[in-house]
Model the fold of this input.
Amino acid sequence: MSDQAPHAGAGTASTDEQARVAEFEARIARGESIEPKDWMPERYRRQLTRMMSQHAHSEIVGMLPEGNWITRAPSLRRKLALLAKVQDEAGHGLYIYCGTETLGTDRQELVQQLLDGTAKYSSIFNYPTLTWADIGCIGWFVDGAAIVNQTMLAHASYGPYARAMVRICKEENFHKRQGYEIMATLAGGTPAQRAMAQDAVNRWWWPSLMMFGPHDKDSSNSDELMRWGVKRKSNDELRQRFVNLTVAQAKAVDLTLPDPDLRYNEETENWEFGAIDWDEFWRVVKGDGPCNRERLAARRTAHEDGAWVRRAAAAYAAKRAPMSEAAD
Amino acid sequence: MTAPLFVHLLRLADDRLVLGHRTSEWCGHGPILEEDIALANIALDQIGEASLFLKLAGALEGQERDEDALAYFREAIDYRNALLVELPNGDFGFTIVRQFFFSVFSLLQMRALKSSTNQDLAGIAAKAEKEATYHVRHCAQWVVTLGDGTAESHARAQAAVDELWRYTGELFLADDIDREVAAAGVGVDPSTLQSEWSAQVGRVLREATLTTPDVKFMQRGGRAGKHTEHLGHMLSEMQILARSHPGATW
Done:
């Protein structure tokens, strides 16, 4: 704490900047949490804004593939649970957008970046949901992978992000259990239900492994994010943890993960897995996944169709607050 | 009493299931994120209420039909909801005005049903009354905002009121079934709710600078299974998976 003060008059701007960065990194090394009003390097602010907004966008775009089955859910209980889950995702998106705003960029601008196609979101949501089993599989794999990632992010150096992750992880755990329970029910159901479950596992397994991002050696942002305590574990470490957790879960419900190379290594105590198709990963990231266009088109349509409503809300608020500046 | 009460319960359930389903179609497509959350909330409440009413109906009937059998394996002509709730969503203004009209009705209906001599029914009504109170408050605020917002939102809200008004009369039509369950102290005669509904709705429309249309004929038929063409399409989507796997559990 004591070495925080002597910045004023500490020589040239660049040495002043260096000293601030050094102090910032020392704070992170001590495990202190960085808060919105604290000084932070511009690059840290930008990286976090990018990461957090991508996360928020993923929650919002992620509503679409699951929303696709709300109207066809096979029982009232499942319909309520799915609707509540998709609603939770909207809540997560809202919460993380608010967290991102603490870094100085407002939600409107972030949403515009999504609609422009300049911001990314998790590629997993560019795959289609073809059967009811996909809803189970998304809960089990996609929320399961998100939990592995977010459990780590709950220790991120930026306080608002870490706190958001703690809260969100609790709900994601519930979603994952719900998804796994759908899969267990299908796997123990009629032959047609069982086939549906296995088919969904076959389609979602590899894209779920891709959710953790490129191999460590190919991940351009990882080193910096690790140094600044935003990420605490590497992509490959997290991916391995997810595989280790999921293999046993698949066995328990007698579903087969579609990887002939999957085998247990006694020494490392890891489940080793086959090669990921990185061509597919980059293809989907770059916009040529099965549903990239549909997902963005759906967001744009909702935004455009809602423009008159937002204008009405602004106009009404302005009429009710005549002393304040009129909203646009 | 069993047969009339069964139909009375179906009417209560189907209004909420069909409108809840319609509202759930908005999920992920709302004009603002906060509204995605609010509409999902309303849909969840209504489908939850429907599920309870259907469960009670199934138990009363004694034919081993649970809430899912009644929701997923009845034809459109066996549904007993009012026509108002089955119409497609239209724009956000249409959705909100329709929800407002229904929720005011629902609030009055649930308030009255709370004193049903059937304890199960009274219990569901007490829960649903709290939910409807929130729905009315939320939708009324939007009706006023849209009506008194921009010229465009005013025109859209007025168009929704004009289009929907002809479907509101059916909510208050009572037949022998309603009268019988009401006389027995179990159900509510909907015709007794009309004047309070008109007063509450009128107040909000006036605040919203919207006018009440002069409609010569009120559409009707849903309570007796004579629906619009829209319900069959809605149900075909809702029921497809359950009906494709008869006997399966989910």
In short: Chain B touches chain A through 50 residues (CB under 8 Å). Residues 20 and 43 of chain B are 4 Å apart (CA to CA). The domain at 2-244 of chain B is CATH 1.20.1260.10 (Ferritin). Chain B has one domain: 2-244.
